[in-house]
Design a protein that fits this description.
- The protein is of the alpha+beta class.
- It has one domain: Carbonic Anhydrase II, CATH 3.10.200.
- It is built from six helices and 16 strands.
- The strands form two sheets. Strands 2, 3, 4, 5, 6, 7, 10, 11, 12, 13, 14, 15 and 16 form a 13-stranded mixed β-sheet that branches. A three-stranded mixed β-sheet has the order 1-8-9, with no helix packed on it.
């Protein structure tokens, strides 16, 4: 029982690291950039020594088609939500239970979502304009993150609904307020489209310190589109060192990427 409590406490701490700035000041360039993360703190050692790090490049030669993978099964519902400046990214935090994603018979509960720009994952070496991460966690403390890649084009409908709130967030952030939260009211997570005829699956890590290797990654095969104005809105509240907040791709170190495709 004591061991279970320990892992629950650890999982909550790791979730906090996914959603709010760590006391150790990591960044995306210079002395605190991704190449230095592993030396910034003993708890960040996986960032440099890990063998299952994320993000990765989705290259054809490393992809294996799998008949064992199933369609994504999610059960989301409405919840009150807040738009948050996490310091190193912009996210949406949910109040209470928002529903779950089922992977290999396990339930992972949706905790928050956030954006990176440009994208962290790449497709055959190509980096996209942005990437959305939907962060889920199970009762044992492991994470399941769904990644949605965005190419430049039409406006994304989810971001369109919160554009005025993003402007408000940028204004308050520029005024020096820390940990700014902007109320979004009721947010219907089902409007985030996850139905896909294909997706990629691999085991990896958090893409920010402490880079713990406890993440089941699912990257949707179908790209969404985002306008250049929306990209600017997602960057505006962030300080200069976090406006381009994509960790470089990491070596696979022998891992294979599984691909699910709807059978004709």
């Amino acid at each position: 029982m004591a061991m279970r409590i320990f892992f629950l406490i650890l999982s909550f701490a790791l979730l906090a690291l996914c959603t709010s700035a760590d006391p150790v000041n990591f960044g995306y360039y210079g002395a605190n950039g991704p190449q230095k993360w592993g030396s910034l703190s003993p708890s960040f050692s996986a960032c440099s020594k890990g063998k299952a790090q994320s993000p990765v490049d989705l290259r054809k030669e490393n992809i294996v088609y799998s008949k064992q993978l199933k369609p994504l099964e999610r059960h989301y519902h409405c919840s009150n939500a807040s738009l948050v400046n996490n310091g190193f990214n912009i996210g949406v935090h949910f109040e209470g239970k928002v529903g779950n994603l089922r992977i290999d018979g396990q339930d992972f509960y949706l905790k928050q979502m956030h954006w990176h720009s440009p994208s962290e994952h790449r497709v055959s070496g190509k980096q996209m304009e942005a990437e959305l991460h939907l962060v889920h966690q199970n009762e044992e403390g492991s994470f399941a993150v769904v990644g949605v890649l965005y190419k430049l084009g039409d406006s994304d409908p989810i971001i369109s609904k919160m554009e005025k709130k993003l402007v408000e967030l940028a204004n308050e952030s520029s005024a020096g307020y820390e940990g700014v939260h902007i109320d979004l009211g009721t947010f219907n997570a089902r409007h985030v489209k996850l139905r896909a005829r294909s997706y990629y699956r691999y085991m990896g890590s958090l893409t920010t310190p402490p880079c713990k290797e406890i993440v089941t990654w699912t990257i949707l095969g179908k790209m969404r589109s985002i306008s250049i104005q929306q990209v600017h809105l997602l960057k505006a509240p962030l300080s200069p060192q976090f406006k381009n907040n994509a960790r470089p791709v990491q070596p696979l170190d022998g891992r294979k990427i599984l691909k699910y495709t709807v059978q004709a």
